[in-house]
Amino acid sequence: MIRKFWSLKKGEPATEMDRKIMAFQKQGYKVPSRKLIKTPEQIEGIRRSGVINTGILDMVTTEIKEGMTTAQLDKLIYDYTTDHGAIPAPLNYEGFPCSSCISINEVVCHGIPNDKTFLRPGDIVNVDVSTILDGFFSDASRMFIIGGETTPEKQRLVDVTKECLNIGIQTAKPYCFVGDIGFAIQCHAQKNGYSVVRELCGHGVGNAFHEEPEVTHYGRPKTGMLLVPGMVFTIEPMINMGKREVHFSREDGWTVTTRDGLPSAQWEHTLLMTETGTEILTY
Ligand code: MF3
Ligand code: CO
What we know:
- Strands 1, 2, 4 and 5 form a 4-stranded antiparallel sheet that branches. This protein has a 3-stranded antiparallel sheet with strand order 3-14-13, with no helix packed on it. Strands 7-12-15 form a 3-stranded antiparallel sheet, with helices on one face.
- Helix 2 (40-63) crosses helix 3 (70-83) and helix 4 (152-171) runs antiparallel to helix 5.
- By secondary structure, the protein is α+β, with helices and mostly antiparallel strands.
- It has 5 helices and 17 strands.
- Helices cover 29% and strands 24% of the residues.
- It has a single domain (31-280), classed as Creatine Amidinohydrolase, CATH 3.90.230.10.
- It has helices at 16-26, 40-63, 70-83, 152-171, 178-191; strands at 87-88, 101-104, 107-109, 124-133, 136-145, 176-177, 195-196, 202-204, 211-215, 226-227, 232-235, 238-240, 246-248, 256-258, 264-266, 269-273, 278-280.
- Strand 8 and strand 9 form a beta hairpin.
- The site of cobalt (II) ion has 5 residues, from loops.
- Cobalt (II) ion binds at residues 139, 203, 234, 236, 268.
């Protein structure tokens, strides 16, 4: 059974953290269960997983080129991951057939690598990789501009989406709420004339691929789950140039595209909540 509330450890005095969390709980706020607070050993494991995950994205940064297929890139990701003693978390995850998600232009996320899709100059491409090392999960994605240049409109979308992630990270302070992060991201996206995808969100991560809480990239301050030191979660805003509505492919069961066909961008990090702010575990 997952306890949806905070309780004291049997036979141990209440800590400062216990008192803070229980005060929020008494006021009716959604608080984490103890299971979501990682132990120092778990944090160390997730940190090591994150180092490999970052190594993959750095390798992709060097290797990604126009004329490549997304399957070729996925193969490089598989090889790098297994060469480092790790497992690509997407592979066979709920039937997903590849080691990464590669999402081009109007593809919002969960693009399936294949040998028919060639990277073309001016494409904006999200490469999303997730790593399991010794049972610990990490998750991050970056945008790449094929050929180094795209239209000013697509370039601005990529840049503002990165700003959205960074604003979300800066907003994530101990004892803030998931809704505080979502609100900050949504404000920045909309101020720039963009929209926030609502059907997919960030998530707790570390002991499994997807854990509580759901980290929505829109919302209202002081809503959603309280975030406390020791929690590990992703922020991964998907920002659309046009309308926020998305389409889920019925053919392959995975690919998510914008309804209006306009481009979408995404950046993602895995974060550890600390006593003072967040530490990026996928930097
Ligand atoms: N990496 C995605 C995320 O950020 C999850 C992809 S699930 C997969 O949560 F099966 F498509 F890989
Ligand atoms: Co994720």
